[in-house]
Amino acid sequence: MKVDDKDLMLIDLIYEKISSKDELAKALKVSTKTIENRAKNLSEIIKYSKKLEGYIFTDLLPKYISPKVVFKHIFAELENANLESEFKELFDEYFYSQEKLIDTSKLSNLNQKIIMLNHAINHNILLSCKYKNERKIIQANQLKVSNSKRYLYITYDKKNGENTGEYRTFALNSMKDIIALEYVKNGGFKNTKSGNAFGYAEGKKSVILYLKNEAASFFKREKPKSHNFRFLSEDDNGIEIEFFYSPSSVELESFIASWLPLISIKNDDELAQKIYENIQNNLNELRNLK
Fold first, then answer.
1. Model confidence over 203-239: pLDDT tens digits?
2. Closest alpha carbon to 27 in 45, 40, 15
3. How many C-beta atoms surround the C-beta of residue 176 within 10 A?
4. Judging by beta carbons within 10 Å of its beta carbon (0-12, 13-18, 19+), is residue 223 exposed, middle or buried?
5. Distances, alpha carbon 22 to alpha carbons 8, 10, 18, 53, 222, in Å
6. Phi, psi of 127 (to 5 degrees)
7. What whole-number distance in Å separates Cα of residue 267 and Cα of residue 42?
8. Beta 102-103 vs 238-245: how paired, if at all?
9. Are strands 167-171 and 102-103 parallel, antiparallel or unpaired?
10. Conformational region of residue 172, where left means phi above 0, alpha means psi within -120 to 50, and beta covers everything else
11. How many beta carbons lie within 10 A of that of residue 125, not counting itself?
12. For 124, which of 58, 164, 184, 280 could close a Cys bridge (C-beta 3.0–4.6 Å)?
């Protein structure tokens, strides 16, 4: 579907949040009448909601979407912050100028889910879905990527009938039959809390890790993105990071094992002994299998 640059900007603005005529006119530096005329030309995709006092999409999965929306998902998969920044600049300079919408029916099921869920997060749309073959009613809060897998942070809505207000992490590949139930005005579904595949980092345990030599050089050079850790400091020999982990400590053990012997736990001798013993036991079991 061919459009111009103002149409693309209009669609992107509405995708990010329910937007009034005045907000859109101000953002695009045009009159509200121009916004109305453009919206009419895009009536297959967007419509005005008197109840919500702004423009919304006609479907949970919009029939057409801008390239920027789809490419943002690709950027989120990149594990290198420098590459992410460079690709965004290239996209803005070369691809976004093509002024063409993407037909969402031609996208993969995963890409369609990502678009729908981001739409629901941005617009406070209450969802019904099947998760592991059980019907759930949820508020979608945030999408995460961890080890190349996609997760959705959700809150169980009161209409779910149980677990009201509880947070959960849903794996996207286990979510099916996603349906929009209703818009929740001023719902505040979206959040940006730190976390990983096991959930939010808040309330989790953390430990200080020290990486040296080639391991430290890799992290300083590649600047990998992760919701599991944050950088603290560096010296001539290495770097310190704070690593967040769940009670099972599975992700912490896996991370340490992947960087031995260039990594150590600095501030918890008891945990260090437990982790190192587990890694040694796993190694012994592997040797016994041969």
1. 668 899 999 999 998 888 877 766 678 889 998 889 9
2. 15
3. 12
4. middle
5. 17, 12, 12, 11, 43
6. -115, 150
7. 58
8. unpaired
9. unpaired
10. alpha
11. 24
12. 184
State if pTM tops 0.85.
Answer: no
How far is 57 from 114, CA to CA, in rounded Å? 15
Q: Could you give the C-alpha distances from 165 to 30, 70, 253, 266, in angstroms and in order?
A: 42, 31, 31, 37
pLDDT in tens, 21-75: 999 999 999 999 999 999 999 999 999 999 999 999 999 999 999 888 888 777 7
E strands, 79-204, are: 102-103, 125-131, 134-146, 149-156, 167-171, 175-183, 195-196, 199-200
Which of 166, 171, 121, 167 is closest to 146 using CA atoms?
Answer: 171
Q: Which two tokens stand for residue 182?
A: 């209703």
